[in-house]
Amino acid sequence: MSEPLLSLRTHIEEIEKLGELRHVRGAHWDLELGAIAEVSYGMAHPPAVLFDEITGYRAGLRVLTGSTGSAARLARTLRLGTRPDGAPLDDEGVVDALRAKPSQWAARARDFPALPVGDAPLLANERTGDDVDLLAFPVPRWHSHDGGRFVGTGCFVVTSDPETGTHNGGCYRMEVQDEGRSTTIAAVPGKHGAQNIAAWLAKEGRAPVAVSFGHDPLLLVLGGTEVPRGVSELEYAGAVAGERVPVVTMPDTGLPVPAGAEIAVEGWLTADDLRDEGPFGEWTGYYSGRRRPCLNLRITRLYHRDDPILLGAPPGKPPHDYSYMRTVMKSAMIHDELVSMGVAGVTKAWAHESGGGRLFVAVSISQRHPGHARQVAHLAAQCPAAAYMNRYVVVVDDDIDVADLDQVIWAMSTRSDPARDIEVMRQGWGSKLDPMLPEGETAYNSRAIIDATIPWERREDFPRVAQSDPAELAAVRRRWAAALV
């Protein structure tokens, strides 16, 4: 049987060809695997890592990390192609190739309905009832203060709208419970998956859920991105890939999971079935909260391939497993949304990795009129792609590369007056993951907008920047490159 579309194994083969995969054998599932992954994220050229022969488990039961952590791997994931000379895209190339793509994919999604299939490698092994055991697989304890072993980091959690039947796929943290027979699902409040679960609980008293734990990281990307309400991530993935995604319909819940999945479970959430969950090292770089009750998925059925591979995507202090991916995706989406609003003069947006791709956004503009920078800042702070957990928006002139944090800080330091150029917006869309949110308080946040552009009225007499002409610098680099190596 050939590999189905969105197979994790196909992705692994492709990144091996790119020379970006490293094999690690003999690491322990308890902390060591997570620490090795963390070291890899901080490397100058972070590789993907495939763990095998994990302590306590037989060879062949593997875990992949770093699946989207470079321009080449993310370009492969998003089917963005290569440079004209066939070389992999670089950071700028990926963002440029992404421009306008998210809105195009969303518009075309319904042309790619999921394709139910009756056979898939996923169906090779089936477990039901008390035979279900998630700990038969090498589920890591990623961080030293995590409350347990988290199988759901690179997962794809499928729910449905009980009124429309539209499926949603989200990526939420999932801690193994009951010695492997169940797992909590910490769906983020306000996200579409959490809304679907709440609607099912209100209507039927239980919510059906299916989860994939190993698949093409395209589903990891889409599960953590603001796909428009009413658009299925599986259909959206079809639009990205250019063909319908084959799915297996789970027999108990009727929910679809990708046929290319390595492991899939299904079951039910009920309001009275809770387990203590957390803490967990999150994408903000902090452990989130204390151990607390969370909805628990009572698993009725588990399928898995022979020798299945878990897709791991542990967050943490940036850079982490998917911080690069989120930065690139958010940067392109924010830029596109500003342009789609009709805002003139926007040249680039960048959602910085040090802010987890959400907390710190910089936008460059070619100033067109007084107040232009403030207009862009306010819109960027609340546009759909940036509204969740945004904290700082900085607007700079178009001579500043917003992807270069040193240049952004230089502009802030020399072109803004704190008393005049910083405004604070209150009661924005926050999160319980926010380390600044006191325990028990409503998840609002405030956000600062910083106008670090040259004041409109001083454009003619503002001091000249002390640097060579860019064209002259480019010529010098070409002429003297060998001497400077």
Automatic annotation (TrEMBL):
Residues 12-80 form the 3-octaprenyl-4-hydroxybenzoate carboxy-lyase-like N-terminal domain. The keyword Lyase applies. It holds the Pfam family UbiD_N. One of its GO terms (molecular function) is lyase activity. Keywords: Lyase. Residues 324-452 form the 3-octaprenyl-4-hydroxybenzoate carboxy-lyase-like C-terminal domain. It is an enzyme of class 4 (lyase). Gene3D superfamilies: UbiD C-terminal domain-like (3.40.1670.10). Residues 119-318 form the 3-octaprenyl-4-hydroxybenzoate carboxy-lyase-like Rift-related domain. NCBIfam families: UbiD family decarboxylase. This is UbiD family decarboxylase.
